[in-house]
Amino acid sequence: MKQRNIAVLIFNDVEVLDFCGPFEVFSVTGQQDKSSPFNVYTVAEYSPISARNKLSINPHYILENCPKPDILVIPGGGGRRADGTGYGTRKEMNNQLLLDWINQRCPDVECILSVCTGALVLAKVGLVDGIAATTHHGAFDELRQLAPSAEVKEDERVVDSGKIVFSGGISAGIDAAFYLVAKLLGKETALETAAYMEYHWMGAVDVQN
Fold it and tell me: Is the pTM here over 0.85, yes or no?
């Protein structure tokens, strides 16, 4: 089995569980049988990164030297200050260097996992137009403004739109990661990983293959 590269994009004010949850799921998948189907790494524009609540992170790679990913994880996090200035995804969605990097990688990846307000970044580069999507409940209106033709599913924790799998906010990214494991490697592998993590996977019966 070919080992898939999974690049987890991080940036200042990224929500910790948005990226750490999927990172953990993908990293421990296959530990029981030593199959190691995923090579998981973080990538950022620079190092170090200061995540939410001032967690300092040294990414494995920066944009310029990141190995070619098979799967790209776009987490969320951040918001807007009282003066209207954005931070986290609300800032990065206007970071042309980052948007260009995403645009360059997306055509060649097998799948994109959008967590929380990562959907806003993907909408900014036009990848959410005309498809079903979801995001954090506090960002539904923003997503509709950025992608008016998208079908925003407010009641869905995980939305599979083919190449892009979307999740709701924060902890929903863990469910989406298990969903993607099941889609790529089979439900049994996802359930084994969930059992190892002692996690009750909510989407265990709804995988689209």
Answer: yes
